[in-house]
Structures are given as structure tokens and as C-alpha cells.
């Protein structure tokens, strides 16, 4: 059993004219919640796309669950929830999940269970297009949960959610991690770092820090994770 769910080595990605990831190396341990934190534009989505195997990379290696990123063997083992909703607006929540359940070869019971997991059972018969942005994200998340994947890649899943929904989603992430799923969750909200087992801080495509929230606080000498990030960013620029 390989202990790391993800191993990235000397990854270079160029998008347009920008060298977005200029030689990034990092690892993500199995069975835990790793937060990918950093300011807008620092390369979080690009890295997640590379891990999902859908990003053209210039060089370097990305190994996911022991396979090269994007390997067919990982298709049912890796779930990816993008920032943009990936479900059909003209279908109800239940119809969307039933459709994805059929595509994934799992039963309709799995669709109902996933709907309950994300707390959308009361909206089961609502058209997905008339849900709020946060509710639509939860439909996408439910679709990713259908196959009991080993690794979940979640790109800013809590954007636009109110504090209660955010807390509920983080509780769900914790339950999934307790059950052995590895989660990589991107966010630019530093207070979400406190809910992670491990935090990767990215800045301009470089790894500024890889630490637990407690290690971050003591390295920066402050309890405020936002402040800790700013201090670490200033130190690295000095
Ligand atoms: N399709 C694209 N073509 C060219 N450049 C792109 C493209 N998508 C992103 N970029 C650039 O790549 C860099 C990293 O973008 P990325 O989306 O990975 O950042 P991010 O940290 O996820 O940002 P956010 O938190 O705002 O989603 C940015 O400078 C962005 O302008």
C-alpha cells in the first residue's frame, strides 16, 4: 500500500503565456483532508486539473493512487468536482443523480443515498437549474459520491455557501475522510484551513508551506491562519 494518494514531482505547467506551475513538487497523504490554499490565480485549479489528468503539462510527473494521473484504472477511483456545475440544469436533482448512477453502473439506491448525504433530499424533485449556486455544487458533489471513490478532488466546493451549509459540508468531508476517503479541497478562505489535517499553501505556483494547522500557527506565531499565511508569504518574499 502506497502511503501517498498523490505525488507531484517537478511539475511545470504553462497556460497561455504564464508559467503557472514552475516546478511544483508535493505529496498528499491517504485518508485525510488536505487543504489547497492560496490566493486567487496562484494555480490551485491548474494543479487539481493536472491531478485529475485533464491538464496539458510541460514536464514533471503526477502519480495518483499509484498510477499516472488520468490513467483509465483510476476512472472510478477518483472523483472531481469542478468549480463550474457539471450537472444538467433541465433535469431535477433526482433525475440528474439517477442518470449519473446509470452511467456509473450503480443502482438508483446509490443516487438516493448520495442525495441524502449532501442534504438535498428535500429538493429531489426541483429542477437543478432553479437551485442556488451552492445547491448546484452539492448536486455535483453527490454525483461524485456515487461511486465510493478513493480520492475526491474538490475545487472550491464551499464558494457562495452560507456558514451553516459550509459547516455541514465540512462535516460531510470529515465523515468521508474518517471512512478512508482522501480529500483534496481547494479554497481561498483561510479559516477553512483549520478544518484540514494538512494544509498546502500555494503562492504563484510554488509551495510556500506544507503543514498542519497547528504547525502553521506556531511557525507564524499567531492563532489567526489568515495572518499566518500573510506572514509566511512576506517571509518567503524577503
Ligand atoms: N484557460 C487559460 N488560459 C490561459 N491562462 C489561464 C487559463 N486558466 C487559468 N489561467 C491562468 O493560470 C493562472 C492560475 O489559474 P488557476 O485557475 O489555476 O488559479 P486558482 O488559484 O485556481 O484561482 P481561483 O482561486 O481564482 O480559482 C492564472 O494566472 C490564470 O490567469
What is the structure about, briefly put?
This protein has 238 residues and is α/β, with parallel strands linked by helices. The chain is built from 7 helices and 10 strands. The chain folds into 2 domains: 4-77 and 151-236, Rossmann fold, CATH 3.40.50.300; 88-148.
Main beta sheet, described? Answer: 6 strands, mixed
Number of domains: 2
Which fold name fills CATH's third level, the topology of the largest domain?
A: Rossmann fold
Q: Please identify, by name, the CATH architecture of the largest domain.
A: 3-Layer(aba) Sandwich
What structural class is derived from the secondary structure elements?
Answer: alpha/beta
Give the SSE string.
EEEHEEEHHHEHEEEHH
Categorize the overall geometry: globular
Q: Return the CATH class of the largest domain.
A: Alpha Beta
Helical percent range? 25-40%
- Uncertain regions spanning at least 5 consecutive residues: none
Number of E strands = 10
Whole-angstrom Rg: 18 Å
Strand order of the largest sheet: 6-7-8-3-9-10
State mean pLDDT (0 to 100 scale): 92
Q: CATH homologous superfamily name of the largest domain? A: P-loop containing nucleotide triphosphate hydrolases
In terms of DSSP E residues, the strand content is 25-35%
Keywords:
238 residues, alpha/beta, Rossmann fold, 6-stranded mixed β-sheet, 4-stranded antiparallel β-sheet, globular, binds adenosine-5'-triphosphate, ATP binding, ABC_transporter-like_ATP-bd, nucleotide-binding, ABC transporter, ATP-binding protein, ATP-binding
Amino acid at each position: 500500500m502506497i502511503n501517498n494518494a498523490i505525488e507531484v514531482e517537478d511539475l511545470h505547467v504553462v497556460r497561455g503565456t504564464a508559467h503557472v506551475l514552475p516546478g511544483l513538487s508535493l505529496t498528499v497523504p491517504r485518508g485525510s483532508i488536505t487543504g489547497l490554499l492560496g490566493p486567487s490565480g496562484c494555480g490551485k485549479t491548474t494543479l487539481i486539473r493536472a491531478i485529475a489528468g485533464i491538464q496539458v503539462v510541460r514536464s514533471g510527473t503526477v502519480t495518483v493512487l499509484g498510477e499516472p494521473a488520468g490513467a483509465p484504472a483510476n476512472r472510478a477511483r477518483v472523483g472531481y468536482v469542478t468549480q463550474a456545475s457539471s450537472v444538467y440544469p433541465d433535469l431535477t436533482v433526482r433525475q440528474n443523480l439517477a442518470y449519473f448512477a446509470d452511467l456509473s453502473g450503480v443502482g438508483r439506491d446509490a443516487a438516493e443515498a448520495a442525495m441524502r448525504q449532501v442534504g438535498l433530499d428535500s429538493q429531489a424533485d426541483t429542477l437543478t437549474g432553479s437551485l442556488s449556486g451552492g445547491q448546484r455544487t452539492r448536486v455535483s458533489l453527490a454525483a461524485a459520491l456515487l461511486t465510493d471513490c478513493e480520492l475526491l478532488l474538490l475545487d472550491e466546493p464551499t464558494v457562495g455557501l452560507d456558514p451553516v451549509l459550509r459547516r455541514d459540508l465540512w462535516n460531510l468531508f470529515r465523515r468521508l475522510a474518517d471512512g478512508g476517503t482522501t480529500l483534496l479541497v481547494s479554497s481561498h478562505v483561510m479559516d477553512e484551513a483549520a478544518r484540514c489535517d494538512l494544509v498546502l499553501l500555494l503562492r504563484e505556483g510554488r509551495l510556500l508551506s506544507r503543514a498542519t494547522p497547528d504547525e502553521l500557527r506556531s511557525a507564524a506565531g499567531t492563532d489567526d491562519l489568515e495572518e499566518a499565511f500573510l506572514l509566511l508569504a512576506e517571509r518567503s518574499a524577503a
